[in-house]
Amino acid sequence: PYQIPGKIEEMTIRLQYQFTQRYLNRVIIIIIIMKRGWKSKAQVTVFIIIAILVVGGIAAYFILSKGKGNTQTSLDVKSIKAYIDQCIKDSADESVYFIALQGGYYDKPVLSKYYLYNNIPYYWISRDKISNVPTIAVVEEEIGKYIDDNVVYCVNDFNIFKESGYEFEIGEIKSTVKLSDKDLQVDINYLVAITKEEKTTRYDKFDYSVNTKFKSAYDSADLIIQEQKKNPEYIPLTYIADLSIKKDFKFETVNLDDNTVLYTLIYNKDSDKPLIYAFINEYQWKTGGNQTEIVL
């Protein structure tokens, strides 16, 4: 059988090691940049080995050593722009998986339950009989905050380039996210002014798109809660099963306690990195025995 808790745990582990992927991407970019300046193939090989050690966590910091004789390091502003673009790509790509696991939130929701290292929101509490599904505008804002924080973390104040004599003026970052049925579009206002040898280049606008079924997952969760309103104390199992066929996802319900059910909607189910959208419903079932009530 398809074990959803295991899938959530697996995805959580992936997200906990995001910093490793970020270091890998930085190292790849720096290798490309540096390779132009290394004249010796042996020096290139040693540099790549050091990079692998950094990614593996054996070394905590990237060590850049200058060669002897006429060996020079060649950096340019376009390389720094590519570095920023890579950080944006990584952060945007990762955002949909993290936010989906937390039911549309980056910051901890007020009504949530901590489960497998994630704060999963309550979408339905039967005693209130109202939907707690965040609006799509709220979700887009939460994704934007995730991207902002992670881009800033990724560029790391551009310290690696400062070592080569570059100076930076860095402004506040603000991402504007728009979700559609097929993708996520992010437009970023982020001032980065790069100066070296009295020459300054300024960037202040960036954009990127992610192919994702996040919006479809969000819409499915919202439809499930709308159906839930019709029978506040019952799991709408047949409705979810029919919806999963129409929307092409797998699902699972897991009883977290006598009255609380975790719902997970799994898109890209055959992928090695499925999109898992999670939320929780709370019911007022009588305690004792098997109280799960299902609408067929």
What does this structure look like?
This protein is α+β, with helices and mostly antiparallel strands and 296 residues long. The protein contains eight helices and nine strands. It has helices spanning 4-16, 18-35, 41-55, 77-101, 136-155, 159-162, 214-228, 237-247, and strands at 112-115, 118-125, 130-131, 167-179, 183-196, 199-211, 250-255, 260-267, 275-282. The strands form two sheets. Strands 1, 2, 3, 7, 8 and 9 form a six-stranded mixed sheet that branches. The protein has a three-stranded antiparallel sheet with strand order 4-5-6. Strand 7 and strand 8 form a beta hairpin. Helix 7 (214-228) packs antiparallel against helix 8 (237-247). The chain is elongated.
Summarize it:
The chain is an alpha+beta fold. It has helices at 4-16, 18-35, 41-55, 77-101, 136-155, 159-162, 214-228, 237-247, and strands at residues 112-115, 118-125, 130-131, 167-179, 183-196, 199-211, 250-255, 260-267, 275-282.
Rg over CA atoms, rounded to whole Å, is: 23 Å
| Annotation field: number of helices | 8
* Beta strand count: 9
Strand content: 25-35%
Please trace the helix and strand order, writing H or E for each element: HHHHEEEHHEEEHHEEE
Using the alpha-carbon principal axes, give the shape: elongated
Helical fraction equals 40-55%
Keywords:
296 residues; alpha+beta; 6-stranded mixed β-sheet; 3-stranded antiparallel β-sheet; 8 helices; 26% strand; disordered N terminus
